[in-house]
Recover the amino acids of this structure.
């Protein structure tokens, strides 16, 4: 689009997972059921930014994260890293990509091998990618443990000896060991207690500054995403509803779903008690995505066009895109917040 | 409603829940784990009280101890007064009438709390069968009514469906319907929305508040999410390492926390207008319940701690009407600059 090149770009990516293929469907000659986890998702990740991806369960945010690091192959479309399609990478080029784009997983209990010490876990990453000569590895491990603020004696211990927050730090140290440019963090802190969450979020913010990392932060917690992201992608049922700078999204969402999601998230202000339900109904089954706007069934502003024609992402404010037929939805609020400082 | 903590006697016959000195211990291989220690709190009629804390703080154990749902090797002592009777000392026969009748409970995981091989309708009727003298057809009609109250669409058809055919939000609604079957006076809710998406959580919380108004029942809501507390509760009790460290109305506690742990919890949650700044996290991790530190259990993580905190455990002192805090330095904490 512009003269500069985004570090990671997702271009029209779709991903389907096949569901059960019942005998009845076979006999009727119908195609097998498929979960449309992602349909035609397009977005760019700029160098050095934190891109937040939010949505409810089943919206495809984790699938998108996995497609970005090629843990899933996209069915259609392409993910490009530094301009090259990652599905064409082989051999050493693929290994180099794996080094430069690292993923950190949600479950700090499941993503570390219980039979390896911390030293072996981090050392493995270092030796596979030949980051350091063998003799320098112990020193590098100590350096990494210090970076994520774990005690130096942690190296000889096993994952089960650590608390959830410390385990997540080990995961971060392992990802950082190979000096990546992009970190894709899938629900990094959602398994942790609030006070420990804050520690890990602080660590991530500090590391990003220090190491000039690009972070893709996938989470369901809006407060958290607002806190750490420069830009936010709101997803619903495998599609992008809105892409927006974080401040603009939270002050003036331009999509009815973003607005409902914000209203549903409880604020830390007992004075703002609100007894109206933000959004009625439930997520439709991803096996059976409606033909028009995926959100049409729950949208309070739905009109006849929404059920037949899928809205495409189109520009709203500066850097703000939304997929809604109501192009001036939220425009009044956006105009109101522009000249005045958001005072509350 | 707010002065209920100060007014501890039940002699005037007001209905409500009074918990005094509730202690729950588990004899484990690593030693005696004190999961809840000396828990005191009250719930006035029609009031929503939030029990807040992180994992292992004893909030769920407290809730289960009220209903005596603690199994061996767990031991419960103390008093739980309900309608002039003590639930802890009550014979099992009598307790069965209270459970599911006057006091109902809902759980975090509806899928494990519901019976997977019985239709939802049968599970609602089970409760009515146990506690009322309704006939079969009356029970069916009441079940249908309950499904409508909790907002399950196509109730007639869904009564004959099984839990796996319900979505997460609908399962939680079904569980609330079962809990409401006998019009309880007190609902104990153990993290009822933790497993749900934010828009569904919002629906369930609003439903609980509507039901509270409609049925004039009290609610004890256990949660780890301060946002949920702010949105739904009247009063709150913050728990740490098995003890209540601070109580008060939600507005007071949020505006001016007197305990450093409450202060830290509030600071750990990101707020609007402060993007990409460091959060006021609490250092360290909660202690193991089998090896609690001497003195105040929070002192190793506390920035206000002094010598006295390492030796003497602070009592839960009354500092205002219905406002209690267990901290040697609570005045200093309250006077410290606001978290925002």
């Amino acid at each position: 689009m512009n003269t500069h090149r985004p570090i990671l770009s997702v271009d029209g990516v779709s991903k389907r997972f096949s569901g059960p293929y019942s005998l009845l469907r076979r006999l009727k000659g119908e195609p097998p059921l498929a979960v449309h986890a992602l349909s035609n998702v397009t977005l760019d990740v700029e160098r050095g930014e934190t891109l937040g991806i939010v949505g409810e369960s089943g919206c495809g945010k984790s699938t998108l994260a996995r497609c970005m690091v090629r843990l899933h192959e996209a069915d259609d479309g392409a993910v490009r890293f530094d301009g090259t399609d990652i599905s064409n990478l082989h051999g050493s080029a693929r290994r180099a990509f794996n080094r430069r784009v690292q993923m950190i997983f949600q479950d700090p209990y499941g993503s570390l091998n219980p039979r390896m010490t911390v030293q072996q876990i981090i050392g493995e990453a270092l030796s596979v990618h030949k980051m350091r000569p063998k003799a320098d590895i112990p020193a590098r491990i100590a350096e990494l443990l210090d970076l994520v603020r774990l005690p130096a004696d942690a190296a000889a211990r096993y994952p089960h000896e650590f608390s959830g927050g410390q385990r997540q730090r080990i995961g971060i140290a392992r990802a950082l060991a190979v000096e990546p440019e992009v970190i894709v963090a899938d629900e990094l802190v959602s398994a942790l207690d609030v006070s420990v969450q804050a520690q890990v979020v602080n660590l991530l913010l500090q590391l990003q500054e220090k190491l000039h990392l690009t972070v893709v932060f996938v989470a369901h917690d809006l407060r958290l995403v607002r806190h750490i992201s420069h830009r936010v992608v709101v997803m619903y049922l495998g599609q992008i509803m809105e892409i927006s700078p974080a401040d603009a999204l939270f002050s003036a969402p331009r999509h009815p779903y973003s607005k409902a999601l914000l209203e549903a998230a409880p604020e830390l202000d007992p004075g703002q008690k609100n007894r109206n339900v933000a959004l009625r109904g439930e997520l439709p089954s991803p096996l059976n995505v409606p033909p028009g706007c995926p959100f049409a069934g729950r949208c309070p502003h739905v009109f006849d066009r929404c059920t037949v024609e899928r809205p495409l992402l189109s520009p709203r404010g500066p850097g703000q895109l939304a997929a809604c037929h109501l192009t001036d939805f939220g425009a009044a609020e956006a105009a109101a917040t522009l000249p005045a400082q958001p005072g509350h | 409603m707010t002065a209920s903590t100060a007014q501890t006697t039940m002699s005037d016959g007001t209905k409500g829940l009074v918990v005094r000195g509730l202690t729950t211990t588990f004899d484990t291989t690593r030693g005696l784990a004190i999961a809840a220690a000396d828990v005191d709190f009250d719930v006035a009629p029609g009031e929503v009280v939030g029990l807040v804390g992180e994992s292992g703080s004893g909030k769920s154990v407290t809730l289960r101890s009220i209903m005596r749902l603690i199994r061996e090797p767990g031991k419960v002592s103390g008093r739980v007064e309900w309608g002039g009777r003590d639930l802890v000392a009550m014979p099992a026969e009598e307790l069965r009438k209270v459970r599911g009748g006057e006091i109902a409970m809902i759980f975090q995981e509806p899928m494990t709390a519901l019976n997977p091989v019985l239709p939802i309708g049968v599970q609602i009727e089970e409760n009515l069968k146990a506690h009322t003298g309704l006939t079969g057809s009356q029970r069916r009609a009441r079940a249908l009514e309950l499904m409508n109250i909790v907002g399950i669409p196509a109730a007639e058809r869904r009564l004959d469906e099984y839990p796996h055919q319900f979505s997460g939000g609908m399962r939680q609604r079904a569980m609330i319907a079962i809990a409401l079957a006998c019009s309880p006076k007190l609902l104990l809710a153990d993290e009822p929305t933790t497993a749900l998406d934010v828009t569904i959580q919002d629906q369930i919380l609003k439903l609980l508040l509507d039901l509270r108004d409609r049925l004039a029942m009290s609610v004890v809501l256990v949660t780890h999410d301060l946002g949920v507390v702010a949105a739904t509760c009247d009063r709150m009790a913050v728990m740490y390492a098995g003890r209540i460290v601070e109580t008060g109305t939600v507005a007071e506690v949020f505006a001016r926390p007197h305990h450093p742990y409450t202060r830290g919890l509030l600071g750990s949650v990101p707020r609007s207008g402060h993007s990409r700044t460091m959060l006021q996290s609490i250092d360290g991790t909660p202690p193991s319940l089998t090896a609690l530190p001497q003195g105040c259990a929070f002192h190793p993580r506390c920035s206000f701690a002094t010598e006295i905190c390492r030796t003497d455990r602070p009592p839960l002192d009354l500092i205002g009407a219905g406002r209690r805090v267990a901290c040697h330095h609570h005045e200093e904490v309250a006077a410290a600059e606001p978290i925002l």
Chain A is about 35% helix and 20% strand.
